[in-house]
Recover the amino acids of this structure.
């Protein structure tokens, strides 16, 4: 279990039998109240809470597979989960019951029957993450839980320029936390970035800078580490032209600080 | 102390002396973490927290006056506060220090010297409140702390029609909590509404319905009670044409349920 978005296939698939149906859920959550995504004994996690709600509602053992295991504090709007449920489940009633149990902290936005082959993690063709920055002299308490407040003025044009070298297939060692594993193991941190861009969304209240990045898969802390580096570029601590060399160097100490988790959101997953 | 936005003048004004300067603060806060606005022993309030931070920073006793005493759970983007501070205060440093102490839950957006006559409450010519509704089949966890989730589809056109009878000077007894006071007291709940309207702001994620209402002053729970009634209109439980009669009746039981506080925000105050 080494790569962030692509660990070995879980046992869920083999539990599939004729009395169960594979279900695809689209799930949103506010990551603030959870100790990360993956079920973990003794702490409240997104997967643990959702599995428990699904078990209560379906009165059966449930084990889910997700498109992306978001880190502690990271939000999701379009997390995708595959799960086998009893074949006689009424999806609409299940959805409402799960949402009632989770009381708004996790929301099943959509539930549909999927092919037996469907696997939220392995069937995904790409993931889209968004990172939001509120860039103003004083913080905005009304977006404090979903946007990173950066005080110093950021030059979005340079940050946009700094996106270019990231597009395509590269070794992202510079921007990734190397997975914990037995000494000597080699793990590829090569990933293919399909698109990366900054947009400014002006609300009446606050200008929000939004970074959107799409890749087949991501390694751990990759988006937050890229955003931290981009903010160094936007504030003039690094030049946009340096990013290509920083990426090639494969040296984590050259990247910027890792941006905090609460600005990050798993936006959607494509299949 | 009877009216929501206009209680008798506090003693702050009389404390004014030559060694103090009157300061106008524009203040934003997330109301979720506070037991309302007004300082209250033993519980964490917006005014109590802000006064304490100002006292720590200026090393002097501080007593503030605010444009609107928001209820528990209500947010503010443009609350205005007047306060007398030592004449040698450096406003920019004070602002930064207070924001550091309040750690993002309360943010002083602007601090400026005001006339000795300036009183955040009595000098105000009007207040603008906003109420946000997220209207979709499932809740949106990423706006759960600042928008009221209404599940049943709302007809915004009827809700807009229902605004018309509110404009102008009326007795708002139907929509207001009658202030606690000695028996037999008569309190006017006549208020002048300058503007009231609904807009739909389509984000990529969620359609937000926004109610904006401006009045010289409001009585307690007025906006939330009006919003509750409007939602009854939007969902078909009441007709837009009934609102004029409901307003005239002066009978609270005819109004809709009071909308929850977390959708409400004191948006700005005009002087």
């Amino acid at each position: 279990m080494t790569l962030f978005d692509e660990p070995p296939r879980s046992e869920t698939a083999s539990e599939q039998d004729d009395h169960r149906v594979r279900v695809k859920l689209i799930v949103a959550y506010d990551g603030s109240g959870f100790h990360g995504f993956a079920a973990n004994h003794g702490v409240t996690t997104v997967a643990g809470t959702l599995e428990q709600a699904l078990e209560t509602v379906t009165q059966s053992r449930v084990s889910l597979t997700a498109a992306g295991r978001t880190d502690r504090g990271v939000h999701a709007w379009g997390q995708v989960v595959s799960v086998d449920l009893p074949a006689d489940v009424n999806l609409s009633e299940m959805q409402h019951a799960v949402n009632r149990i989770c009381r708004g902290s996790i929301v099943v936005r959509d539930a549909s029957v999927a092919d037996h082959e469907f696997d939220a993690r392995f069937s995904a063709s790409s993931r889209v993450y968004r990172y939001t920055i509120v860039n103003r002299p004083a913080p905005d308490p009304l977006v404090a839980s979903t946007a990173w407040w950066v005080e110093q003025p950021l030059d979005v044009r340079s940050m946009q320029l700094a996106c270019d070298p990231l597009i395509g297939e590269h070794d992202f060692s510079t921007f990734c936390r190397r997975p914990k594993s037995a000494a000597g193991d080699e793990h590829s941190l090569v990933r293919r970035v399909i698109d990366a861009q900054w947009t400014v969304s002006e609300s009446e209240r606050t200008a929000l800078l939004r970074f959107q990045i799409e890749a087949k898969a991501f390694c751990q802390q990759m988006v937050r580490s890229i955003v931290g580096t981009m903010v160094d570029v936007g504030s003039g601590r690094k030049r946009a032209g340096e990013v290509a060399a920083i990426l090639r160097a494969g040296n984590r100490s050259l990247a910027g600080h890792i941006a905090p988790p609460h600005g990050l959101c798993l936006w959607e997953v494509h299949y």
